[in-house]
Amino acid sequence: MSTILIVDDDAAMRESLAETITDLGHGTVAKESGQAALDYLRTKRVDAVLLDLRMPGMDGIEVLKRIQTHADPPPVVVLTAFATAGNTIEAMRLGAFDHLTKPIGRQDVVDLLGRMLPKEVRSAGRSEQLNSDVIIGHSAAMRTLQKSIGMLADKDTTVLILGETGAGKEVVARALHAHGRRAQGAFVAVNCAAIPADLLESELFGHVRGSFTGAVADRKGAFRDAEKGTLFLDEIGDMPLAMQAKILRVLEERVVTPVGGKPVPVDVRVLAATHRDLATLVANKHFREDLYYRLSVVPVVVPPLRERRDDILPLAEHFLRLTEAPAKVLSADAADRLRRYDWPGNVRQLKNVMERCQALVRSPIIAAHDLELHTTAISTSAVHAEPTDLTDAVAGLERRMIEAALAESGGNRAEAARHLGINRQLLYTKMKRYGLSEAEASEIPTRDVGNDDA
After folding, report:
1. Count of alpha carbons within 13 Å of 215, Cβ hemisphere only?
2. Between 453 and 171, whose confidence is greater?
């Protein structure tokens, strides 16, 4: 049996709420003022508080603020007959579980207590490592991947990690480093798609002071920063052709030449990743064939989340536990919805959804309707008319891909461009072409959705 503290200066309201809550099998304590409630809470614990907003003396907002200073405050629901945008926002900002308008009926109380005082929750357990880089999953596909990591970890072989955006390619790269003989060395990650072509050479190989305008000091570069460790070249499929030739030479000779400097030998393991089809890029002369074969000696494929559904719930629970706040848990209906969803944004999208639920859901238990607020629709094709020709079909697909990328990146256009494998200027041009203004783009995440490979 739970104990509910009712704080309201209206005696009739206190009695009505107390009667309903008692009928539902819970105990109640009623106080007529905010100060009386705070005095009671100094020595007693309750499981939840129903708090009136407008009361003589200390109002509900001030009482809520003081309750929240307690070491382990109970959930507080603010009740008012005078709801405004201002008092609603302020109550939720201060940590209210919910903000409801009077009068509330019996079914409202039933629903409210059901959310505040869940009787059965999924056990979250404890993760061996509470960090976003640990590999989570016991599906057959992940077991195969984990075995490959184990066999390759101590090797210096260059590994090409393949998989869809958000599938977890960087996590695999970090695992290869952490479990191998180079674990004591540095792990340096460079996103080849995020660095302008004219700066990439300096970023990778370094430069000497005065070698170009702005080079005010020597720079070692990523290869030498990763000495005795691992260099991870993410999205290598976006690397310019001229730079590909230089990377190939480094892989073959293990020597880098800083801009304006002399060759320097390096001892570093190189891992590369891409979501692109490199074989197709080679056929279209957009990627060097010799570099492709040099990288793909040992390809490792990270399966998309939809192909390892047994891993969805362990991943979701892991991400919920990464926060410093008490971790929320998933209801049975929420867990079922997660398992059935296709996750076009893969593990990264699941991580984002769990972070949003942890931040925005007041209840300690996450229900299916909470996920509907934060996940993308499983398919957007149903809301688009069937195209009548190839041009229309391509344009429709391109627009939906841009919308999905903007939604998945939370409206960050630079990140969306990286996901799509295009530069930002081209993304802006296409957004303008399809009528996706800056304002409309910023609305996409809240309309459809619920950034680093997870």
Report:
1. 19
2. 171
Strands of 32-70, DSSP E:
48-52
Contact between 270 and 177 under an 8 Å Cβ cutoff? The reply is: no
Helix (H) or strand (E) holding 402: helix 390-408
- Using alpha carbons, select from 53, 71, 70 the residue that is nearest to residue 62: 53
- Rounded CA separation 200/235 (Å): 13
What's the token pair of residue 174? 């970090």
Does residue 272 contact residue 266 with C-beta atoms inside 8 Å?
no
pLDDT of residue 291: 95
Structure tokens at 111: 């629903």
CA distances from 331 to 74, 108, 343 (A): 20, 20, 19
Please count the residues of the chain: 454
Q: What is the DSSP string of 331-384?
A: -HHHHHHHHH---TTHHHHHHHHHHHHHHH--SSEE-HHHHHTTS--S-SGGGS
What does 424-445 look like in DSSP terms, one character per residue? HHHHHHHHHHTT--HHHHHHHH
CA distance 228 to 265: 12
Q: How far apart are CA 198 and CA 203, in angstroms?
A: 10
Q: Which domains does the chain have, with CATH numbers?
A: 3-116 (3.40.50.2300), 140-301 (3.40.50.300), 381-448 (1.10.10)
**pLDDT given at position 119:** 45
Find, among 96, 5, 80, the residue nearest to 48 by Cα.
Answer: 5
By the 8 A CB rule, do 188 and 225 touch?
yes
Burial of 86: CB neighbours in 10 Å, binned 0-12, 13-18, 19+: exposed
Place of tokens 């061996």: 128
Percent helix, strand, coil in the chain (nearest 5)?
45, 15, 40
From the list 337, 418, 410, the residue with the least C-alpha distance to 378 is 337
- Contact (Cβ atoms closer than 8 angstroms) between residue 33 and residue 58: yes
Encode 350-362: b = buried (16+ Cβ within 10 Å), e = exposed. Answer: bbbbbbbbbeebb
* The residue type at 429: T
Tokens for 449, please give them.
């959705």
pLDDT digits (tens, 9 = 90+) for 106-150: 888 888 888 887 543 333 333 334 454 568 888 888 888 988 898
Q: Evaluate whether 113 touches 75 at the Cβ level (below 8 Å).
A: no
Q: What is the pTM of this model?
A: 0.62
